[in-house]
Every structure is written in C-alpha cells, then in structure tokens.
Amino acid sequence: MSGKRYKESAKIVDPNKKYNLKDACDILAKFTPGKFDQTIDVAMRLGVDPKHSDQVVRGAVSLPHGLGKSVRVLVFAKGEKEKEATRAGADFVGSEDLIEKIQGGWMEFDKVIATPDMMGQVSKIGKVLGPRGLMPNPKVGTVTFEVEKAVMENKAGKVEFRTDKAGIVHAPIGKLSFGSQKIHDNVSALIENVIKLKPATAKGTYLRSITISPTMGPGIKIDTASVHAA
Length: 230
What we know:
Blueprint: H1 2-10, H2 21-30, E1 39-46, E2 58-62, E3 73-76, H3 79-88, E4 92-94, H4 96-103, E5 111-114, H5 119-122, H6 126-129, H7 147-156, E6 158-162, E7 168-175, H8 180-196, E8 207-214, E9 220-222
Helix pairs in contact: 2-8, 3-7
C-alpha cells in the first residue's frame, strides 16, 4: 500500500526541521520505492508579488541529468527548419497539418517549439496550448530559429518554470531512482537559475522556502541558507 510506504518514508523526515540540501537529497534516496519510479518535485516560495508583471519569475533550465523520462517534442517549422528539427530528433514536425490535428483534439506531445515565422498560425491554438503550459514562448527558448539546439535541450530534460499566483515555483527535477548525487545536481541547477532571475524590484528575502518531495512521499524542507540564496 502506498499509505504504508508513505509512513515508512515519513519516519526518516522531521517535519519541523530544515535540512541542508545534501542531507535532504540523502534522505530522499532512502525513501521506500513504490511500484513506479516516483517523480521528485521542488516547490520554491519566492519573495515576489506576481500581480506585478516585473516580478513574475519565468525561465527554463537544462538539468544536468535530465528528467529520467522520454520527452515527446513537437516542432512547428517549414522548409530547412523542418528538416533541421527532424534531424535533431523531434517526434513531430509540421505546420498547418499539425495545427489542424491539435484543433481536432490530438495532444500526444510534451513540449512545443516553433520558429518565429510560425507564431501567427500557432496563435490559432493558443487557447488549447496555453492552459496546458505548452504555448511556445521566446522567454524560455521555445520560439527560436535555433531549432536543433531547442529540440536537443528539451529531449534531454529542459524544464520550464514560472511563479504561480502565490509566488511559488513548482518544477519536476528527476526520479527517485537517480540517487542522492544526481538529485542534488538537478535541484542545485534549478535553484541557481531561479536565483539568477531575481527581479530588481523584489523586496526583502527572495528565497522564502524550498521543499522537495516525491510523488507519493512527504516533503522535506530545505534550509535556504544552505543553497547560497541571494
């Protein structure tokens, strides 16, 4: 039972303690594995007010060890860029044909990349892609003519993130099976990236809290001072 595994994992976590990042990753690696390889998520509460557009923290990070799963990449491109996307390993490449397919309800992909000249047509399916977090955006490198680079990064495990209404960044950073060191490397890469994007208008403490947790396990609080917070 997952409840039993949760209780076993919870025994080795003090809910009132904040751990340094290395210790937290060591504890995660000791959690009882489930029937499937659990995804590890990070939640970072930031000292920003997302109601102000200049305090929305948004970006993307290429995780050193990827996400531990295959990522299906769709590319909207024409001509040479279409060929480039195919060579780079994109799962689906096209233009109007794919737009029609998506309008018909097809959603068998995880990431969407588009060349800038295609965005006028891609905007027709903005209401479909937007709510799912799939709309291409130049801020995270998914609207670009550097198609090969974008495809390879996303296939390897590039993670997009942005603050929600409460000023919290949620992002997956890998699998429980990665072990302590790989989890540590991936979490560190995400945190460093978020710190670099600190808005100039953010007041007070920027990194308010960090919690890491597997899909079926308890959260582990991280001491923000242990991650060189700005």
